[in-house]
Every structure is written in C-alpha cells, then in structure tokens.
Amino acid sequence: MTFYETLIKVLSTKHRVVVKNNNGDYQIFSCETDIDGDFRRSCWCDTEEEAKQWIGASLGYSIEQADPIAKRNNWQIVKAYDLEHEGEFKEGEKVQVIDENCPYYGKIFTIVEIVAGVYTMKESPNEGVRPRYNAYQISYPFKTEETEELTMEEVCKELGRNIKIKK
C-alpha cells in the first residue's frame, strides 16, 4: 500500500493524520477536502502543536504529487486521531487497530502499557494475546450508527402520536 493510499484510508474515517518528514517537521492532514477533492492539510511546522494551528490552511496533494514527495522526503505517519480525541492515548483506554496490514485489523483492545511510543494491548481481562502497535496503527474506536428495531406502534409512541393501526 502506498503512502497516499494509507493516508486516504485513514482520512476517510474522519480522522486527522500527523506526518513527520526527514527534517523533523510536522504536517497534519485534515479529513476535510479542498475544491479538487484532495484532503486539506497544514503547512509544515517545527512542532505538532504548531501544525494543529494551521490545519486546513493549505490545499491537498493529488496522488500524483503526494507519493513521490512522500518518498523523497521520507514522510512517516506519526499518529492518527479523531476530532474528539486530539491527545495521546492513555493506559486503560479502548483503541481500534486501523492498520490493514496488522493481523488484528478492526479489533478493539484496551491499552495496558505504554513504553517508548509502543502500546501494549489486550482484548479482555483474561485474554492471553497482547499485541503491540505504534500510535499510527491504532485509533479510538470508530463510531457506528446504532439502529433500533421498533414496531409501527412503538414508532408512533416515540413520535408522541396516538395512532391505531388497522390490520
């Protein structure tokens, strides 16, 4: 998977992606798009915090532009975060594996230990599997819309209407 394909996959889940280049500068890609449909980004900044102030200020890269530049400047995805959780992950928090190349892709784990930017996780209290991932490989669990099954009478009651249904 190319850098751009990975970037697009994560951004399409309504996350932001922090990228670092070979000079140690940071850029943050936003899940919002520009007029050409490319994901907007910040300018390159000395720190991640500074880059956060510029999210969306620059137009996005096309696939033709992004991959060659990413390769030449050794872009690395540092982490991905959703709009509600901009801080670092903490022990005890639930996270979801977002790297398709990982054997536990899509699974939700609890962080049990953090050492040098590597997160050790477990699925349940009695679980023996303890995968270890970097920040860019995990995210807060994606939100899914919950659906509820109701009868027609229950729907009417929810709407505050008193309707008798003919059979």
Task: Please explain how this structure is put together.
This protein is α+β, with helices and mostly antiparallel strands. The chain has two domains: 80 residues; 80 residues, SH3 type barrels, CATH 2.30.30. Helices cover 19% and strands 28% of the residues. It is built from four helices and nine strands. It has a five-stranded antiparallel beta sheet, with no helix packed on it. The longest helix has 10 residues. The radius of gyration is 21 Å and the shape is extended. The model has no long low-confidence stretch (mean pLDDT 79).
Principal-axes shape call: extended
Q: What is the percent of helical residues?
A: 10-25%
How would you state the average pLDDT, rounded?
79
For the sheet with most strands, the description reads:
5 strands, antiparallel
> Tally of extended strands?
9
How many individual domains? 2
User: Which structural class do the helices and strands define?
Assistant: alpha+beta
Q: What fraction strand?
A: 25-35%
Q: What is the CA-CA span between the terminal residues?
A: 56 Å
Low-pLDDT windows of residues: none
Instruction: Please provide the ordered H/E string of secondary-structure elements.
Output: HEEEHHEEEEEEH
